[in-house]
Amino acid sequence: MNQAGQDYCVLQAQNGQPRAFYLLFRHYQKPLLSFALKICDRQDIAADACQETWIKIARNIQQIKDPRAFKSWLYKTLKWKLLDLIKSESKHPTENHNQPNQVAPIETMHHENTHPTLQQAVDCLPSIEKQIIHLFYYESMSIKEIAHILKLATGTVKSRLFRAREQLKQKYLTLEKQP
């Protein structure tokens, strides 16, 4: 969906058109869940946060003044829902929950005779760098949008993005030199 299509769907959803809201949901649900898993490695919490985010968006879509801000509003809402659920989970841990999505450290992947994918390398980054890489490259968001979602200064986003690229480059160079 291009920007004009998204803007149109937001306006139509604000006017009570369920089909428009469904199109927004269908377009953003998979990337939203993927981003949630970058913040929290628990599938159950990520899925719950996405569901609660869509409920909140549906109830409050009238509040958005500029349809172009929808995407960053959606991701920012998800981030807050995730943090709430993680905090709640730490206060009330349950016995029966799904195991986190385990990603092998990139250093051990070489020893298992597998070649790490870029996604696996990204998953090994520190949390904030992982989120920035995901939003910048996988979601095509601007530095300004990322700064808004993560509540960081634009300069901080730029430096963290640079640092993440360097970390990825170093990990790949190190792996390629090993026998």
Content-based structural category: mainly alpha
Task: Determine the CATH superfamily of the largest domain.
Answer: RNA polymerase sigma factor, region 2, helix turn helix motif
How would the global form be characterised?
globular
Question: What name does CATH use for the topology of the largest domain?
Answer: Rna Polymerase Sigma Factor, Chain: A
Can you count the beta strands? 0
CATH architecture of the largest domain: Orthogonal Bundle
Radius of gyration: 18 Å
The main β sheet shows up as:
none
Q: What is the tally of helical segments?
A: 9
Mean residue pLDDT: 82
Spell the H/E element sequence. Answer: HHHHHHHHH
User: How large a portion of the residues is in β-strands, by DSSP E?
Assistant: under 5%
> Distance N terminus to C terminus?
44 Å
Work out the helicity level.
over 70%
User: How is the quaternary structure best described?
Assistant: single chain
The total tally of domains equals 2
Q: Please give the CATH class of the largest domain.
A: Mainly Alpha
The residue ranges in which pLDDT falls below 50 over 5 or more consecutive positions are: 95-114
